[in-house]
Amino acid sequence: MRILIVEDDRDAAAYLVKAFSEAGHVADHAADGLSGYAMAKDGPYDVLIVDRMLPKLDGLSMISRLRLEDTQTPALILSALGEVDDRVKGLRAGGDDYLPKPYAFSELLARVEVLSRRRPGKGEETVYRVGDLELDRLSHVVKRAGEEIDLQPREFRLLEYLMKNAGQVVTRTMLLEHVWDYHFDPGTNVIDVHVSRLRSKLDKGFEKPLLHTIRGAGYMIRDSAK
User: Fold this and answer.
1) What pairs with residue 69 in β-bridges?
2) Could you tell me if 101 and 94 are in contact, meaning their C-beta atoms sit under 8 angstroms apart?
């Protein structure tokens, strides 16, 4: 998932960005309601996590404005205001869920995953298949020839991106931006290491490899049988 966190408490935001990253997702941060509105309107996010009390534009007003302009990305409101009336106001403003502070990250993650699954008009596949390889984006289960493959969160994101672009060359720059969230080349062999590990898990013991290195260009997932 790609998540936008709109939170003016920088420590709280940094914690959430790190926690979602460790869970295998991508999280961006906006520190005020106006910035959050602009990023949510233009960005391809699966879920918005919005603090209610924000500078420049409060969270409920931000969500209401997005709904008026037909941005339907699911929004979960975080707030220290947890009374019934507060929750009702949040939902009526266009929020899809409301979680009072303090909260457990495990509950927040579960709620965000539910919102992502029911996103209206998402139109994107939830299961990718290439040959006998199958990746379920919701359950994070990967199988080849019916056998489950255990992947680390970063390996899963790498494979997910490759399978989303199956049959096309994926460059190092594309991987850095979409899997590692780098907008520059850090000059390390991190991609090569992860691709090598992923290849050993996907192709070892199989006659036909699926993960290919395209010399001088990048990498590709394709069904060798075709």
Assistant:
1) none
2) no
Contact between residue 100 and residue 133 where contact means Cβ atoms under 8 Å apart: no
Q: What is the mean pLDDT of residues 8-27?
A: 89
Q: Which segments of the chain are extended strands (E)?
A: 2-6, 26-30, 47-51, 75-79, 97-100, 127-130, 133-136, 141-144, 147-149, 211-214, 218-221
What's the pTM value of the predicted model, to 2 decimals? 0.55
Q: What angle do CA 84, 85, 87 make, to 5 degrees?
A: 65
CA pair distance 92, 185, nearest whole angstrom: 44
Residue 147: predicted pLDDT:
92
Local structure of residue 170 (DSSP, 8 states): B
Please report the beta strands in 101-178, taking only residues with DSSP state E, as ranges in sequence order.
127-130, 133-136, 141-144, 147-149
